Amino acid sequence: MTTILYIDDEPLVADASVQFLKHSGFEVEKALSGKEALEKLRAGRYDAVISDYQMPGMTGIELLRIIRSEIGDIPFILFTGKGREEVVIEAIEEGVDFYVQKGGSPGPLFADLTHKINHAIKQRESDRQLRKNEERLRKAQEIGKIGSWEHVIDSEKIWLSEEALRLYGMNGQAREVPVTDVFDLICERERVNNAYTNLIEHGIEYHIEYSIIPADKSAPRILLSIATIEEGEPGSRGRIVGIIQDITEKKNSEWRLTKKNADLFAALEKLTATEEQLTRQLHEVQSAHERLAESEERYRKLFEENIVGTAVHEIICDESGTPVNYRFLDVNPAFEQMTGLSAHDVTGRTVLDVLPGTEPYWITIYGHVALTGTPIHFEEFSQELDKFFEVFAYASQPGQFVTLFQDITDRKRRESYLNESNVYLENLIAYANVPIIVWDPDFVISRVNHSFELLMGRDAEELVGQPIQVLFPPDQAEYAMRLIHTTREGVRWESVEIPILHTDGMVKAVVWNSSTIYTPDGKTPIAIIAQGRDVTVEKLLEKEKERAMIKIQENIAQLAILNDGIRNPLTIIVSYADMIDPEISEKINEQVMRIDAMVTNLDREWIHSEKILNYLRKQDKIVPDLFSQIHSVPEQVYPPETFSKPSHQISQSVSSAHSLYIEEIQAQLYTILDSIDALVYVSDMDTYDILYMNERGRRQYGTVHGQKCYAHIHGQTGGPCPFCTNHLLMGKNGPTGVYRWEYKDARTGRWYDCRDRAIRWTDGRLVRLEIATDITDLKKSEEALKRSEQRVRAVLESIPEGLLLRMSGQNGLSL
After folding, report:
1. How far apart are CA 714 and CA 704, in angstroms?
2. How far, CA to CA in Å, does 274 sit from each of 28, 248, 256?
3. What does DSSP assign to residue 637?
4. What pLDDT, in 10s, does the model give residues 50-78?
5. What is the per-residue pLDDT across 145-156, written as a single tens digit (0 to 9) for each?
6. pTM of the full predicted structure?
7. Can you tell me the distance from the alpha carbon of 675 to that of 639, in angstroms, rounded to the nearest whole number?
8. Alpha-carbon gap, residue 666 to 660, rounded angstroms
């Protein structure tokens, strides 16, 4: 049973603590002072000491200091109500095992104390056993003159045990020393270095004898060194672990015995000594065979359990030394699984016997490896097995080679499909008959198609890598870049006009639509792709039509003036005609009436022309309602010089500013929606296509633009959701306002508070806007409250006496 000495200057506390500890299964003795505790410790044996800190005559830490110096490493736990940081630090510095502060409930407190006692005792016993084992190992190495060493590959240091240091004449504790210091002591440096290199690079067994001149200039020694390579951490080449043994006496004995055997070979009386020598050698051979068997068993286990297909072969050459075939010597289960060939059917047979259609290049590659010793790593297709393989081959010994391979057929097919898809998409973009451009989030052009090259009059090589502002006329670059910046916030252009500067100096009007491409989490934009339509000719035709209408209007106005100008002289002519001969006057009046009839007919045609002009204005929108546009956009959007331009220039300037204002407002709206901790999305009410989703939704569902809302969000495959609220959002007189409802996602089990309404989208169509807030925690709270109320009601109803309750803040009583 574990015996504990408990020390506390307060008898009542000490007695209570002793009882708790005895109840936990310990045998406990108490002491009321540090002095009494030392007397007991010197007189008896205890497994652990528990001491208070503040005691008269000697503190707990002073007691700990004496115990560590006089008695040893007995586990010591400071159990006190003092919680000052300096006390804890001082206790740790003096070697306390645990520091437990009094206070709180006794049960958990003493349970924690019991746990720490057991842990400290076990830890101390483990430390003692470890030191004992280390001393045994050191003694065994000293007796056997065997030292151990470790070397991390490519490191300039080598670790030597205490005995290894003694053998090299570098006495002291086990430590790391420079590799060069060790190699300088070896007489056969080149042979040792070659053996070491073969172990690292080819896995060839490192078992070598060599002589040294010890560093302390003592007598030369002969050492036997055996080592193996162990795999290291990922990214490192591993380490070499080995032993060295001083076989100087053995070698000297062997030399003396050999000499004696040569001198006394003919002497029969020396036969017994020779037999003893042979017996010792036989034992060594048997021991070596045992070690070899163990090594072979490790190799066989690694070979059999490796998940990589492995096979051992020997190369077969013709008379000229050219590889023509190879034979299977051994294969592992993974080889059988990947190839469908059993070990029984292939072992001992050649590849052309097993797979007659094997391509010659397999034999050529493996022949080069087996004959030159040069390892190779490659990927190739086997017609016989109809599979792709990734192969690593190396020479295990001259004329033989080992192959490690994996079936990569599925990966190759996926790569082929991906390459075909990439080629298709590349061609789709490259040969599209509309200009397409892609830029990154830093607004640097990453690619353009052939139609865009024609639009700009510049090659793709000249544009790719350039900032996108090089595309725009200098006087409109700021306007264009403000629009470009909105795309990084997720704004999708449907029909935005941005001018482009052709290489010949001509400014082309282009209408663009765009889409932002995000990372899989739907949060980070990685590229923006835009498709344009050159409307330069259309706009020129519109201007020509406008000028033609203005000219028509001028002609009509001149015609009206001409009519009045003709009638006035006619009136004068008639007045003068009345003063002359009546017969001549009648003829003059007759001709005047004819002219007046023609003028009247011109008046009717002028009125008709005015109606046609008004119709054309209405249909072709030749003269925009300038002032309605101006009043619909804040004044700060338009520069003051806007109103000093001709009317058609003002119209164009106002329209551009209006588009820019809308796009920037939309970008700000998207930023606000992305910051909302709720799912927000917009979908077409007729097609159910998702037109927009905020960042919270993109994180949950990925990039969903153009997907059906019922399929991508709710997992419905047969059509719209049966609980769709679209029909509730529209009435006879238009949108009905906000419709609120709750929904539980059957796939995740989470509740959402949904608020839907019909709104006008940027292109004028009616769409559905839904804001869904996660209320799962609220639902759980409601359920918990309901269950609590039911339990309270059940308790109240089980009481036989009547109860009269008055709720706080309410008038009246409840019975």
Report:
1. 13
2. 68, 20, 12
3. G
4. 988 888 888 888 888 888 888 888 898 88
5. 788 898 888 888
6. 0.36
7. 32
8. 10
